[in-house]
Amino acid sequence: MGLLAEFDQGNTEETGHELHRFAAELYPICRSITGDGLRQTLRLLQQRIPLQISEVATGTPVFDWTVPKEWNIRDAYIKDCHGNRIVDFHQCNLHVMNYSVPVLAKMSLDELRPHLFTIPEHPDWIPYRTSYYQENWGFCLSHKRMLALKDGPYEVSIDSSLQSDGSLTYGECLLPGRSPEEVLFSCHVCHPSLANDNLSGLGVATFLAQFLAGRDLHYSYRFLFIPGTTERLHGLPGTGRPRGGFATG
Predict the structure, then answer these.
(1) Burial (CB count within 10 angstroms: exposed 0-12, middle 13-18, buried 19+), residue 120
(2) pTM for the complete prediction?
(3) Would you call 13 helix, strand, or coil by DSSP?
(4) What residues contact residue 196 under an 8 Å CB cut-off, 6+ apart?
(5) Quick check: helix, strand or coil at residue 246?
(6) Helix, strand, coil content of the chain in percent (nearest 5)
(7) What is the mean pLDDT of each run of 10 residues along the chain (249 residues)?
(8) Residue from 144, 127, 226 nearest 186 by CA
(9) CA-based R_g, the chain, Å
(10) Which residues contact residue 5 at a Cβ distance below 8 angstroms, ignoring those fewer than 6 apart?
(11) Judging by beta carbons within 10 Å of its beta carbon (0-12, 13-18, 19+), is residue 62 exposed, middle or buried?
């Protein structure tokens, strides 16, 4: 029986529920192109597939790119004059611009406004923003919430770190077949709480690797779980150079 026929005979409803459960487990983790959220995510994948996890030191040259500083975040908020958290990282990790530098200050709304990001045409949405290669800080919130802000003052805190002695983490799952020719699945694993962009691809790629593992395969299959801006990692020693590939999620 071929692989596709065997797959078609499976319980697709149960597979769908399992994919949803896995996505729900990954959803709360604050991921980025480096850091502990990325490592935590890869360890969860490693519980399901034979995943090799590698670290690449900050400052490592990779073709025309250099591995950046490692970013981690513990807490972030904006408090109003009564001490209430009106924007809270622990409520939704999208509230903080990814790769924000540390900040602890009190300021007026006019001072704070340049660091607030919204989507006016979707007033209930929280945007996802990053500042990987320019040191900055910011908060993302719904446009409706921003319009309700008073003049202040506001207490602003981002408890984060940028480590020049850190590293970038990626995962690789190689399922060898009889042929040296490979099929590559490249899946970015860096976005935080985003379902259709990131978690759907992570879930499907992990399930496919589970399905193929331990089978008699003609082609070899290589699954890369890497930050989305760093496909250059394919050029690192140990990663394959397949004939064809497929990017997801």
Answers:
(1) exposed
(2) 0.85
(3) helix
(4) none
(5) strand
(6) 30, 30, 40
(7) 60 84 94 96 96 95 88 97 95 96 97 96 94 94 94 95 96 94 92 86 93 92 85 44 34
(8) 226
(9) 21
(10) none
(11) middle
